[in-house]
Amino acid sequence: GKFESMKVLLINPPVDKMIRTILPAGVEKNRGYSPPLGLLYIAAMLRQKGLADVAVLDAQAEELDSRRLRRRILDWTPTIVGISALTFTLLDALDCASAVKELFPHVPVVLGGPHATLYAVSSLRHHSQIDFVLKGEAELSFCLLIQALGGRGSLESIPGLVRRQQEHILEQKTPGGAPSLDPLPFPARDLLDLDRYRSVLSGARRVTTMITGRGCPCRCTFCYRAPYERHYRPRSAANVVAEMAACREMGIEEVFFYDDTFNLQRNRVVDICSELIQQELSVGWDARCRVDLLDADLLAMMKRAGCRRLHLGVESGSSRQLELCRKGIRLNHAREAFDLARRADIDTLAYFMLGFPDETEEEILETNSNR
Questions:
Q1: N or C: which end of the chain has fewer CB atoms below 10 A?
Q2: pTM
Q3: So what's the pLDDT on residue 23?
Q4: What SS3 state is found at 307?
């Protein structure tokens, strides 16, 4: 019936209109591409439930111009399209949605991702080419939406769905996402051309991203996470390493853990490392860590388990700004973490922010001199 012929197209929009950063052109060009994990999780879930034939179109990694993008949309003849949007790719996401509507006027377009989650109502109010917004983690809600559109189930019961009803916009309560992450299928990386994912940091090696835990209990004032995303849901070490092994079999040699904070639970990091050492998985990895939760023993173990690089949030070299951002770290934590990482022979990359509200020029210069 109607249901079996559902064809889903999930699009990571191009970055033609992206608000450019001030990175040097060389770094910008060689930064490489990260697979669109959110879309790949949704694709894996649709497949697991047998709900639809699904394709993922990563316009960034394929470096598609608008003509070729339209060609690809036309070739797939979708019955529903999902587009992921960050704030700085919003204009491209909207162009994508318009292209879908010109080619297939009756195909519903769903917007998801961080921008859609934060600005759900205005995304619908001002952009007629968007039919639905799904806030938050959408693996489960996207499946429910597909079922409802196929005549099985109602739109009212879908968590995180924002939709139009006559001239009103209805916003349904956002879910906390999957209560437990281990049962989720691994992202459908096989839907992509894996050779397109390499990065300036990994050299020529095939690289992928991975999320080993969702949510973050920290309350940093600069974070865009909603309060309902404070509940931390870590995956088990066995589940994480199983996904790394699956990546290794696809010829991927490096994994970048994209968790907000990888080292929230020390014993879980230890378990992941033990498992990696035991299985002798030759996969290098990077992780984003808090500077105040690292110690020499842990770093030595991470190094043995293949950790190549740590991305550490220092945020500011000004003690006052660190206090104000409520991250709960001090400058000496940062100094010590870099020192320990160096001794463990792990590369480091620091994140800083400039331009906090009310930050003074002196404080900006402190960040520079405290390096």
A1: N
A2: 0.91
A3: 57
A4: strand
